[in-house]
């Protein structure tokens, strides 16, 4: 008994560290299953998976959910104040390539919307090739973090992950990833701006006075994701803030919320049929998807026109 009391006196955890650990564990346990349910709906419903835009969303959701185990183990690491077998560190290394992969996949999604809505004619296989390359490069970057030349660490008592700058090429890897990520965000934003401009121009040319619901939905999703992604990207890659808890915790928490909470929230808000399916348990499911042509609401449909997903 005296040994237990003595050990307890020596082992005094920082309350903030415990709170941080509990926060990460609870968020990963709650938000990731919700996100996985949305991905499951996309995969199992033929009307969703038959459209390329939702297949791209499945890729995005998959890479974001792959960060879930790492965040959970990172929270557990904070509570225990040590990392059993270094598992948490290994799992959190997924976050380094994952945030870059998600940025490029979001760019592919923007290209898909541009192709469909503006009726551009180029091979759809280009999008598939980009996604394959993204997965290959992401897996390659993850493997590089186990070599003596690159490092990415997660430690108990430190409330965010950091590149290990003692390794010779960690800085170069971070900078290359940040250029890819920020470039993808910028191009995606330009693409969505072009889409909105095209739809507005189309509406005025047709002389219609209907609301901007469809344009607004796309702009809201793209605008929110762009602002949050760019803010986090600049803060993490170019902020050069001191590694102190008051700075580290909000930065990593922002990444967790942006990947586990923001996408499913926007999907459910902007897609009424998905929302009905998500909260429907048992019984006969109502129709979950309407295929409409965004462009066709603005003008008479040309023969052979391409239909696009309705975010309602």
Any overview of this molecule?
The chain has a single domain, classed as Rhodopsin 7-helix transmembrane proteins (Rhopdopsin 7-helix transmembrane proteins), CATH 1.20.1070.10. 69% of the residues lie in helices and 3% in strands. The protein has twelve helices and four strands, in the order ααααααααββααααββ. The strands form two sheets. A two-stranded antiparallel ribbon has the order 1-2. The protein has a two-stranded antiparallel ribbon with strand order 3-4. A hairpin with an 8-residue loop joins strand 1 and strand 2. The N terminus is likely disordered.
Determine the CATH topology: Rhopdopsin 7-helix transmembrane proteins
Indicate the overall shape.
globular
Q: How are the strands ordered across the major sheet?
A: 1-2
Total helices: the number is 12
**Secondary-structure arrangement, i.e. CATH architecture:** Up-down Bundle
- The CATH class assignment is Mainly Alpha
Features:
Rhopdopsin 7-helix transmembrane proteins; two-stranded antiparallel ribbon; disordered N terminus; 312 residues; single chain; Serpentine receptor class gamma
């Amino acid at each position: 008994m005296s040994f237990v009391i003595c050990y307890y006196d020596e082992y005094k955890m920082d309350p903030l560290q415990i709170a941080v650990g509990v926060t990460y564990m609870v968020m990963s346990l709650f938000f990731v299953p919700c996100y996985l349910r949305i991905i499951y709906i996309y995969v199992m419903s033929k009307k969703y998976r038959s459209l390329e835009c939702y297949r791209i969303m499945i890729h995005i959701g998959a890479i974001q959910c792959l960060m879930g185990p790492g965040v959970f183990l990172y929270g557990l690491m904070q509570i225990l104040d040590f990392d059993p077998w270094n598992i948490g560190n290994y799992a959190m290394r997924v976050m380094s390539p994952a945030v870059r992969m998600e940025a490029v996949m979001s760019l592919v999604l923007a290209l898909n919307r541009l192709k469909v809505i503006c009726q551009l004619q180029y091979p759809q296989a280009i999008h598939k090739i980009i996604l394959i390359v993204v997965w290959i490069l992401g897996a390659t970057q993850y493997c590089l973090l186990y070599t003596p030349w690159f490092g990415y660490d997660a430690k108990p008592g430190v409330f965010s992950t950091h590149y290990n700058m003692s390794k010779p090429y960690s800085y170069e890897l971070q900078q290359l990833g940040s250029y890819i990520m920020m470039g993808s965000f910028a191009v995606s934003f330009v693409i969505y701006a072009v889409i909105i401009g095209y739809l507005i121009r189309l509406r005025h040319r047709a002389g219609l006075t209907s609301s901007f619901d469809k344009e607004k939905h796309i702009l809201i999703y793209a605008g929110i994701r762009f602002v949050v992604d760019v803010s986090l990207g600049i803060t993490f890659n170019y902020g050069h803030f001191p590694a102190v808890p008051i700075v580290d915790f909000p930065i990593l928490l922002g990444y967790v919320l942006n990947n586990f909470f923001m996408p499913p929230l926007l999907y459910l808000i902007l897609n009424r049929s998905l929302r009905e399916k998500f909260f429907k348990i048992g019984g006969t499911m109502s129709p979950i998807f309407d295929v409409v042509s965004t462009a066709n609401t603005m003008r008479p449909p040309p023969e052979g026109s391409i239909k696009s997903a309705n975010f309602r």
